[in-house]
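Chapter review. Work through the record for NADH-quinone oxidoreductase subunit N before attempting the end-of-chapter questions.
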Amino acid sequence: MTVADLWTIMPLLLIACGSVLVLLLGAVVPGRYLTGVAVATCLGAALWALQVPAVAALPQLGVALTPLARLFTVVFALAASVTLLLSHDFNERRGIRGEEYPATILFALFGMSVLAAASTLLTLFLGLEALTFAFYILVAMDKGSDRGAEAGLKYLLLGAISAAFIAFGIALIYAATGTLEIVPAMAGAARGIAGVPLALAGWGLILAGAAFKMSLVPAHLWTPDVYQGGPPPVVAFLSTGSKGAAVLFLITLLRPAGLIPALHGPLWWLALLSMTVGNLAALRQQSIKRLLAYSSIAQMGYVTLALLTGSREGYGAAAFYVVLYTAMNLVAFGAVASLSGRDDLETIEEYRGLGYGRPFTAGVLALALFALAGIPPTGGFMGKFFIFAAALRGGEPLLAVLGILTAVVSVYFYLRVVVNLYLHSVTAEITANRPTSVEIVPLVVASLVIMLLGIYPGPLMAIIEAALF
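Structure tokens for NADH-quinone oxidoreductase subunit N:
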């Protein structure tokens, strides 16, 4: 390995060394400043990824710092920074102390960054499972929560099954093509799928595992329980970074040969069921975290609709929506975390009148809900517009129309929360926590991203299109 190679993978090295440094500092001089060290590590990796030029694959490492890898390394690093800041005071209120939490966030970020830069199927799998393993720990990090322990166990068991599906699928594709390099392996699998049943079986297993990672119906049953049981800042990162990495996983595999005809049917049904079940199930939820969980299922259905087109426009729309969805869900769960004291505000009824009692936090929560519903001029409108436009141009008019109808249905349950925030009087003394300065900064920044992408999405879309091709 040369010095140039080390320079190229420096974002990965910074994150890995930062995680170890946080663990060592926590053992020697424990204190709250560990959050600052972790945030500095994330921002340093993001800045380094921005200034390092794209390079060809490093065969001995199985990674390539492509434009797409640089873009998503920055997105994931910023999401981790926001999560750490939102967790800072929340963890103090819950008694979650120690170096394990920020170090595990950095470890999850390392897995996401490896996945983004992977050039072989093996590296891709290792990155995906590294971030998933970190989330097993983070979901159950609150040792005083029985619900968190239950959520962590459910996520672990089903996650292990998902990992087995993906690993077996990669093994079958390797057996069919004789290579682990992503581009030749996926191109070879596409050419040989008609005559080599192993390649088709491998793709089927990978798709089943990816459906779990993205919470696509029918592999979605873990999502509401994990979202409800996990600490809100952790769920904010899980629902954004983890889902974004899973979408990037599919984009990486689909790009070399385009959408294989045999995969059209399964992806079509995954998209339709996820959009329909996610939005209809959310209508009946009384818990805001379960409502956002079913919303997440529906949102990933929209992303699958974009991937289904197999076109440059579809992949670009999916990547744009991942960036936007990251900002939207960080704000939504960040507001829930900021409002939570020693206990979460669980039911929607508990948010009655908070628009007047806690105006800042309620305001950013309302903005996130408007964006998730796709109401202009928020970025959610532009994200859905790009997805449905790509679907219509990609030959999926029926599914695009059905997606639009389910998006209209979703407006009801998002606005139901907003109505409770502003159109109902407070029925009891407000117990919601006041936002701290550490929480205000990331919520403001993420909210500005939502509005900026709704008003002026062109630059980001241009960057994504240039990175994809």
